[in-house]
Automatic annotation (TrEMBL):
It comes from Clostridium sulfidigenes. One of its GO terms (biological process) is succinate transport. The keyword Cytoplasm does not apply. This is Threonine/Serine exporter ThrE domain-containing protein. Residues 4-131 form the Threonine/Serine exporter ThrE domain.
Length: 157
């Protein structure tokens, strides 16, 4: 399991290097993939399906990338894109092609559908995390604005 986590880290750092992300942010991009894989393993090992585990991994990456984007003043894509690399269903896609070549169309169809659904789970997890983060940030900003206005009114009286 530790080996998988280390490989997830490097599986996120190397694409970040390929995408020419600032060297100071490479470790943070690697942590994104590590968190994705850890959350994937936790959900999968406790009885979750591959789809739910992938969704949770993508959701964690999305929240992490939004937080780190604010802290490091960088686009969230610098953390989210490398972070989802460990979750991409490459083996499933390979198996789909392998089944097609072997003319086993029933397994090919099943594998293709699972690959598409896992890809959709990644997209949905990223979208939902971004929307959720922005929603709670707006609520927090509104509360802070309201408190500042109330303090200003108190100072005037």
């Amino acid at each position: 399991m530790i080996r998988q986590i280390v490989l997830a880290f490097f599986g996120s750092v190397f694409p970040a290097i390929l995408f020419n992300i600032d060297r100071k942010k490479l470790v943070w991009a690697g942590i994104s993939g590590t968190l994705a894989w850890i959350s994937y393993l936790i959900v999968f090992n406790y009885g979750g399906s591959v789809i739910i585990a992938t969704f949770m991994g993508a959701f964690v990456v999305g929240v992490y990338s939004e937080v780190m984007a604010r802290r490091l003043k960088a686009p969230s894509m610098q953390f989210s894109i490398p972070g989802i690399f460990p979750l991409v269903p490459g083996v499933m896609a390979y198996n789909t092609v392998l089944y097609i070549v072997a003319q086993n169309y029933d397994l090919a169809y099943s594998s293709a559908m699972k690959t598409i659904i896992v890809g959709g789970a990644i997209a949905f997890g990223m979208m939902l995390s971004s929307t959720t983060y922005k929603f709670f940030s707006k609520i927090q900003r509104d509360i802070e604005t309201k408190k500042a206005a109330q303090n200003k009114i108190k100072e005037m009286n």
